[in-house]
Amino acid sequence: MTQTTSRIFDDFARLMNDAAGVATGVRREAENVMRAQAERVLRELDVVTREEFETVKELAATAREENERLEARIAALEARLNPPDSLG
C-alpha cells in the first residue's frame, strides 16, 4: 500500500507541476494578447509615445529659450533706436 500511495502522490505532484506550467503559459499568452490589444487601441487613438512626447518637450523648451533670447535682443535694439532722453 505504501508503494501505491507513494505512486499516487508522485502522479499528483506531476499533475500539479504540469498544471502550473500550463497556467504560466496561459498567463503569458493573456498578457501578450492584452498588450497587443492596448497597443492597437492607443494607435487608433493617435496617442504619442513617451519618446515622441519627450522629443517635442525638448524642442518646445529650446524654442522657448530662443524666443526669450530674441525678445531680449529686440528690446536692446529698440532701446538703442529710441533712447529715453529723446522722447521729450
Describe it for me?
- Keywords: Coiled coil.
- It holds the Pfam family BMFP.
- Residues 53-80 form a coiled coil.
- InterPro entries: UbiK.
- This is BMFP domain-containing protein YqiC.
- The chain is mainly alpha-helical and 88 residues long.
- The termini are far apart.
- The radius of gyration is 35 Å and the shape is rod-shaped.
- It contains 2 helices and no strands.
- The chain folds into 2 domains: 1-47; 49-83.
- It has helices at residues 2-44, 50-81.
- Helices cover 85% and strands 0% of the residues.
Short description:
Helix content is 85%, strand content 0%.
Overall mean pLDDT: 89
Helices and strands, in N-to-C order?
A: HH
Number of domains: 2
Radius of gyration: 35 Å
Biggest beta-sheet profile: none
- What is the count of helical runs? 2
Structural class: mainly alpha
* Terminal CA distance: 118 Å
Dominant shape: rod-shaped
Total strands: the figure is 0
Q: Helical percent range? A: over 70%
Q: Give start-end ranges of low-pLDDT stretches.
A: none
Q: Hey, roughly how much beta strand do the residues contain?
A: under 5%
Oligomer: single chain
What order do the helices and strands come in, and which of them pair?
Elements: H1 2-44, H2 50-81
Features:
single chain; 88 residues; mainly alpha; 0% strand; UbiK; coiled coil; BMFP domain-containing protein YqiC
